[in-house]
Amino acid sequence: MNEQRPTVLIVGAGLGGVMLGALLEKANVPYTILERASTVRSLGAALSIGGTLLVLFEQLQILSEFVSLAKCYTQSTVGNESGETLSTTNYVPLQTLTGYRGYIITRPAFYNLLLKQIPAHKIHFGKRILNVNEVKDDEDNDKVRIQASDGTIYQGDILVGADGAYSAVRQRLYERLKLEGTLPKSDEEDLPFTCTCLVGQTEPLDLEEFPELKDPESLMITTMGTEKPYSWVVFGTGNGSVCFMVLHHLDRTTSRAAQEQRFRNSENSEWGPHAAQSMCDETRDFSIPIGIGKKTLGDLYDRTPKDLFSKVMLEEKVFTTWFSGRTVLLGDG
Ligand SMILES: Cc1cc2nc3c(=O)[nH]c(=O)nc-3n(C[C@H](O)[C@H](O)[C@H](O)COP(=O)(O)OP(=O)(O)OC[C@H]3O[C@@H](n4cnc5c(N)ncnc54)[C@H](O)[C@@H]3O)c2cc1C
């Protein structure tokens, strides 16, 4: 049966790559995941997951495990630094419509749950894909062939570029389309940087000090900075910890400087710990709307293990071209 099914090559073992791998595993479609990193690092804050994905988790038979790791929510609020609520979003109508509740889950817990669905021999680490070619095999069938930096070559029927915002698969695809004259002009433009983002997760907190966390529903509260180009969000998680996401909204000048810094720091989408540290220092006095007494982001940072901080650029751009020939792009790519 498998011989008649297409073989899928997935470049990138991020959230998109492992989600697709889990689905192909369930559907018994042959696939291989190739990841440039030598190991997976569990980074990030919280993700909000609703009906569109939960229906898939049900089919993958991981819904109950997912729910045990997550915390449901029905509303989110936006307030200012004085503690006034500016807006509230009620998710109940949406949840009634889809038939599924919404959940907050930490990014590492979610990633590990998906990764567990993939047999170890189907993910190859330390495989940085450099070249992509559409070729014919000995029987004149169309195939796609990719080459990793260590010289290994993989051949399959479908190539999925799940390799993030700076996707090598996308770059190779766009180079080909540009030569053919079929790449839209907007797809040639760089990703814009408008925000830097500090994310992290505290250790489980003292519920007497942070009584809001006793609520069986998760909290999701955004604070808009007063006369400062920052906003910050706190989320409650299933294990009594708090995830935070601090956004620095860049103006045109700082955006350009951040872009240059980004290229100096590597092509990975995360910055080193020193960069996270300087953003912590800049923002630790910002007030947060949870906890007894006047709490600040610093109270969360002081309870966050160093390796659970990360600082990422938020690049937001929708590319027009997402497939051509035997190649398709997925996720941030
Ligand atoms: C450090 C970090 C923290 C984040 N935290 C949050 C959060 O808290 N909340 C939230 O909502 N969103 C968060 N995001 C954003 C969200 O996680 C991304 O939108 C999501 O991860 C995108 O998934 P993806 O699979 O498309 O790409 P990615 O997760 O970026 O995965 C791409 C993978 O491809 C690999 N790769 C890249 N190039 C190659 C190559 N040439 N060959 C082989 N492999 C390659 C990379 O190493 C990486 O593992 C975070 C992103 C990052 C990077």
UniProtKB/TrEMBL annotation:
Keywords, alphabetical: FAD, Flavoprotein, Membrane, Oxidoreductase, Transmembrane, Transmembrane helix
GO MF assignments: FAD binding; monooxygenase activity
InterPro entries xrefs: FAD-bd, FAD/NAD-bd_sf, FAD_mOase_fung
Keyword Flavoprotein: yes
Transmembrane region(s): 6-24
Top-rank taxon: Eukaryota
Stored Pfam families: FAD_binding_3 (PF01494)
Residue ranges of every copy of the FAD-binding domain listed in the record: 7-186
Family the entry assigns: Belongs to the paxM FAD-dependent monooxygenase family.
Protein name per its UniProtKB record: FAD-binding domain-containing protein
Organism of origin: Linnemannia gamsii
Phylogenetic classification of the source organism: Eukaryota, Fungi, Fungi incertae sedis, Mucoromycota, Mortierellomycotina
